[in-house]
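DM from R.C. (forwarded with permission)

"hey, sorry to bug you on a friday — could you get me a structure for this? deadline for the figure draft is monday and I only need the backbone to look sensible"
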Amino acid sequence: MKRDGLGKVKIVDKYKMIQPISFEIDREYMLDISYKLRWNKYIHKNGKVIPNYFYAHYHDDQIEGFIDTIPCLRECKWRSSFVKMTGDELEWHTDKGSKCAIIWGLQGWEDSCTHFLPHNQILGNKHDHIRKWVYKDAIMDTQIKHRVSLGKQGKIIYKISILDKNFQWLYKKWIKQYKGFKIVD
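My reply, with the result:
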């Protein structure tokens, strides 16, 4: 965490699109739920059905108790879902209807990688390079173009999508609520 001359929190360049978090979820419980869900096909904002991306909504008292431990959710509009990705790759996209998200890897995160386009542009400048992240749990700017390379088993995540606040807002709230980030370089 860095502060500018006025004492305001600045996002470190390295973490302008995704920030790993150390905030545990009951992975075993959530993964067990995911095996019992009825998965829906995902239709992207451009109207295209994404054949290897599925989602499901599920809520119970235990999940409600977990969500209550995240105070910033009281200050924004959000929705939660389980997401399952299969195949080799999820194509370049920005998320539909959300500005940022809190994501927990339930399965397959170890051998999948999320790629981000720099500055949300088409590559071409000699200084441009795609940033790659392998993460277990993170907050993420879902409006930056990204794609996911998937491992052998695909990937299942639990995701809380923030609908009306941006990544900078979530980043600053996370710092305030949880006294910063545990960053391992």
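R.C.: lifesaver. The CA atoms of residues 11 and 148 lie 23 Å apart.
me: no worries. The radius of gyration is 16 Å.
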